[in-house]
Amino acid sequence: MAFGKGALMSMSRGSICRRCLLTMKSMAGGGPISTYAQQRGKKTWHGPKYQAKIDQAQADWEERAEKIKKGEIQNTWDMFVERGYVKDTAGSTKSGAEVNLKCTVFRNRLADFNSGERSHETIRKLMLHKRIGAYTGIDPTAPSLHIGHLLPLMPIFWMYMHGYAGYTLIGGATAKIGDPTDRLVSRTPLKRTDLTMNLTKIHYQLKALWMNVEEQARRRGFEKDWAWKRAVVNNSTWWNSLPLIEVLKRLGDSMRMGPLLSRDTVKNKMSKGDGMSFSEFTYPLMQGWDWWHMYQANGIQMQIGGSDQYGNIVTGVETVKVVRDNEPDPAKKIEGGPFNDPVGFTVPLLTDSAGVKFGKSAGNAVWLDKFQTSEFDLYGYFVRRSDQEVEKLLKLFTFLPMENINEAMKIHSENPARRVAQHLLAFEVVGLVHGINAAHRTALNHQARYGKQIDIPGVTLRMPKAATEDTPPSILDAPKMDMQLPESLIMGKSIGRILYAAGLAKSASEGHRLATQQGAYIGAMPGHKRTEDNKVMDYSQLSFTPIKLWFPQETRNYLIDGKMLILRKGKVQIRIIEMVSDEEWKESGQTYPGEPGTGALRMLRQQLKMLKSGMLTPDEVKTNLKNHVEEEAPPPGFMKFPDQDSYAIRRATQELMDEIHQKEVGGGSPREERGE
């Protein structure tokens, strides 16, 4: 059913109509036609090496389809059904005969699609013949993803491993509205700074998840193909520049009010709740437009959502079709039909054996941020799952082959008290969320805490090597992103000192070098010149511009909502800084590197002065130094700042140690001689 380059070239232009040629080209390319040259039926030219990659990827896909037909490998959709990912489906049920093609050549190729068949079967055949793209969307309404978000993400990750395009969408724009689905009371509007912080943290959480997915694919023997494609996108990138008139004209003319008003969410909120605002009413249409944008730009033909998103997915399917069919420029028009129509499905709502919504622990969400739910607590949450639900969770939340799951359940049934299946589940989930090293470390910590041997089928536990100064920074080991700094620092000190205080530089001078070399970045609208114009980035769209040496008063130009800065060094070292008043800072008891009056040099000199004056004994000074070192070691989950090791500190330390030695060898301190 798939058409390669040779099949297309072998057909003369005169033997097939233009509409069929365009549809066949979209099938060969793996996505809806989006470039002008393709839409006009013209060949797009690439370099020979790049074209060879395209041809090889298409040949591999055709070979894969043949193996599926022969039963040698499993259709990805069948795997979704087997593992329990599919609840409700939405999409086209049209057959090839209903596409109204002008010729019979391509109509015969669509005979595999039967008239009136369920969307379930349509999706199965679509995924067999075409390398489609799929996405799931997440609104940044909280500072972290929780375990419930992971379920609709799992099919996206599986599709990526099997060669499809996988996209994760952050709703920077839609979060300003708030999804009204299944709510009787409208959401409390997010503050700008809260939305910015949530957006930033979830963006890097998703990047970490995708990094771990790559690792999981290698563990499971998947060989990464050139055509594998993934991305983290933000819908603010198009909504911030989209004219309202285009949305109203392309979409508003054809969407009827009756079906929109008949949705359960609308009826319940209007009759039982606080009413439906216009912005809430348009939320499904905004979500549908997101799908359309990615459909025509990236070939995203499938949406996957939580169990409560079925209504939004159905509206999205209709939105994509309406906008596609209302394209005013014939040269840009994308053909419909079962190979190009949007489809989607929802994952089931999970509850535990007690009927509690899955992902809740003592009434609180189980977060994917290790600073909100620790790796140890996440591991423990899955170890506590009941025997009745553990097999289902292994199918849903791990990349283990079914034969491995069956073998693990067989071992588990021999001695359920050992909780072998639960430990396997916990290990795999922590490995996906926080990385395989974190999974090994957490399992060993759990074993040490409870004093029981842990047996995990197929896994030999090992303690990961400790990171060193030469270890490249990783997003998996990054410190806590959000922090506070006082107004006097942000508004009155150089950007180099701010970088030092934020832990992105080892000293203020290194911070200045970073600024001079443009090696660090600040959240701002890119491309702005250094003028008095406001340079604040849009609070719903994460963007950076290189830091330069500027006057301290210029930093205010980058404050979001007058009190938040976002700094970045490299790709993964991020700081979300909330500016607080000096009074709040003093009351908090916090300190930052380089803060006046808190440095190691000042402490050493003070101890030396008190030792010489007899106010402290050598043992008291040693105790103070030991306590200071222990206080400097941050507790788990807190930022560890660079060591303040300079010539002046080393010299002061040596002077103090010499004085201690002299007091101890020379007969004691004046206090001891006086008998005090």
Automatic annotation (TrEMBL):
CDD domains: TyrRS_core. GO terms for molecular function: tyrosine-tRNA ligase activity. InterPro entries: aa-tRNA-synth_I_CS (IPR001412), aa-tRNA-synth_Ic (IPR002305), Rossmann-like_a/b/a_fold (IPR014729), S4_RNA-bd_sf (IPR036986), Tyr-tRNA-ligase (IPR002307), Tyr-tRNA-ligase_bac-type (IPR024088), TyrRSs_C (IPR032005). Keywords: Aminoacyl-tRNA synthetase, ATP-binding, Ligase, Nucleotide-binding, Protein biosynthesis. It catalyses: tRNA(Tyr) + L-tyrosine + ATP = L-tyrosyl-tRNA(Tyr) + AMP + diphosphate + H(+). Residues 477-596 form the Tyrosyl-tRNA synthetase C-terminal domain. The keyword Cytoplasm does not apply. It is an enzyme of class 6 (ligase). Pfam families: tRNA-synt_1b, TyrRSs_C. Its EC number is 6.1.1.1. Residues 654-676 are annotated as: Disordered. Residues 658-676 have a biased composition (Basic and acidic residues). Transmembrane segments: none annotated. PROSITE patterns: AA_TRNA_LIGASE_I. It comes from the Eukaryota. Belongs to the class-I aminoacyl-tRNA synthetase family. This is Tyrosine--tRNA ligase. It comes from Podospora pseudocomata.
